[in-house]
Structure formats: C-alpha cells, structure tokens
Amino acid sequence: MSRVAEIRGTHREHPHAHGGSRHPRRLASVATRIRDAALALAGLAGLAAIAWGIATVFFGFSLVTFATGSMAPTIPTGSLALVREVPASELEVGQVVTLQRGGERLPITHRIIAIEPDPNVPTGRIVSMQGDANTIPDLFPYHVKTGKVVLGSIAGGQAISDAIGSPITLVAVTLGAGALVLWAFWPRIPTSSTTEPRRGERRYAR
Asked: Any idea what the CATH number is for the domain that residue 87 is in?
C-alpha cells in the first residue's frame, strides 16, 4: 500500500491521536500542581515550627492567654499575647508584663506601676502592678528575677490557640501530613504522551 494509506490506517487504529489523551494529562498536571503546593505549605509549616522552637528555647519567646478582662480595653478577654522573658533589671514602669508570684499557681499579666531594687536579691526587683481595668493595684508586690514583657496581642487569639492545641487537631494534622507524604512518594505509572510506535513494534497497513 502507499504511504498515504499507511498513515490513514494508523489514524484509524489510534482514534485518540488528535487530543483524546489530553484530558487525562491535564488532570495529572493539576494533581501534580496541587501536590507540589501542598508539599510547599507543609515545608513552610515545618520551617515555622523549627523557627518557633528556636525562638522559645534560645530567645525566651512564648505565648500567654488572657482569661479575664483585667487588662481591658488594652487587651480584652480571650486575647493571645506574644511575650519575651527578660531579666528583672530590664523591666520598666509602664510595661505590661507577666509575673509569677511565689505560692500562686497562675501568673499575672498587668501593667507595672512601680519598681524597686530587692535588698535581698542583687539581681532581683520588687514590682508593683495594676490591671488597666482595675481601680486598685494588686494587693501584694512581686519579688522577681525575671519577667515576661508583652510584645503584642491578638484579640480572640485564645480560641485559635486552644483549637490548634486540641487533641483532635493534632490527630488530624498528623494524619493529613502522613497522607500527604504517602501521596507525594507513591509510585506512579508513566503515561505515554505520543502515538509513535514503541521500540520493536511494527505497524502494517492493510
């Protein structure tokens, strides 16, 4: 047969040669982009977690929540604040700080209204505080060697913090990360994007 007949016969044997396989390839391309984006987000989240771990261990950063409105309206109830632990010698009047008084279970976050040197502790300070919403200062001063200065706060951030730290969220994130890694490294069957005959294969026109 002529070359034209051979080409025509080839097109009859492969009806998808003119774009029939584009749709599966397009879906595969979209899936690949979604996978790459998810892996990139997971990588950024991992880097953020590492950076936060370094910040807490080596630079004294941490988070505190406000269960009461004693600092309203500056810091309303349910806020989440970023704090940094510093030596007592660096504390200043007017700062909002988190201090732990001996014998009390929970720390207190109020504004400093007075600071005095501690005669019994060379590096210590005696700090008096008062909440912005309170009409009187705290009943007793705080004898401290360090304090956590509030750097900033987010109203309503406590709800987000509680949701992230809940067991359900942790389990969901763990399962999602495992599924993402499995999806990323699962073996894939290569697909041919051409209609040319494979090596060793011969076509015969009829």
From this structure: 2.10.109.10
